[in-house]
From TrEMBL:
Classification of source organism: Bacteria, Bacillati, Actinomycetota, Coriobacteriia, Eggerthellales
Domain of life assignment: Bacteria
Transmembrane segments annotated in the record for this chain: 40-65
Region (Disordered): 1-33, 166-204
Alphabetical UniProt keywords: Membrane, Transmembrane, Transmembrane helix
Biased composition regions of type Polar residues, renumbered to the chain: 173-186
UniProt-recorded name of the protein: DUF5640 domain-containing protein
Low complexity bias locations: 8-21, 187-204
């Protein structure tokens, strides 16, 4: 009898010990799962920071190091929709045979400091993605203002580029001008002339 009682007592003790061990293991797994759940917000936040940093770096490289504004602004431009030319050299903007403005360029603020005789002024500029269109706006600007304008314009221009469209760099405000590398009206006239010549040759 004593041996049977001892066996029953041992079995009950083992059962209690096993149950306690199971509870301990279950309790140990719960904190581990909680730790994993707590890590997810940090992982997501880290991914967002990396994406934002990549966008900032890409935009900065495109805005300030991708191209040479001082060089790209030089050459012959046409006022959009006209045949009137504007010739830009390294230090002058020639609007007519007897009208040439002196200028210096600030590529950081995307601004021009212009002078003509005793008159001085400033102008804001922006290139299109393909550097074939140039927008100008008369008036002072700041580094921060031009940056905020270009960020919003770049986002919109990228959206249009995805759709296969070229966004105009035209600036908002008064006293603005858009210059292009090709005379738009001459191009249309040339196309009409070519079409007329083709019709005439077919008739002959």
């Amino acid at each position: 009898m004593d041996s049977r009682n001892q066996q029953r007592a041992g079995a009950r003790s083992s059962a209690r010990t096993g149950g306690a061990s199971s509870r301990d293991r279950g309790g140990a797994s719960r904190p581990s799962s909680a730790k994993k759940r707590r890590k997810w917000p940090f992982v997501v936040a880290g991914a967002v920071v990396l994406v934002v940093a990549a966008v900032v770096v890409a935009f900065s490289c495109w805005r300030w190091t991708f191209a040479n504004d001082a060089q790209d602004i030089q050459g012959t431009w046409y006022i959009a929709g006209t045949q009137k030319t504007v010739d830009v050299t390294a230090d002058g903007i020639k609007l007519a045979d007897d009208v040439t403005y002196s200028y210096t360029i600030d590529e950081g603020a995307k601004a021009l400091s212009i002078s003509f005789g005793n008159m001085e002024g400033e102008a804001r500029y922006r290139f299109s993605f393909d550097r074939q269109t140039l927008a100008l706006r008369d008036g002072e600007t700041t580094w921060g203002n031009s940056l905020s304008e270009d960020i919003s314009w770049t986002i919109a221009a990228l959206g249009r580029a995805i759709q296969g469209e070229q966004a105009s760099p035209e600036l908002s405000g008064d006293s603005t001008m858009v210059l292009t590398r090709t005379p738009q009206d001459l191009s249309s006239e040339g196309a009409s002339g070519a079409a007329a010549s083709q019709v005439a040759s077919q008739g002959a």
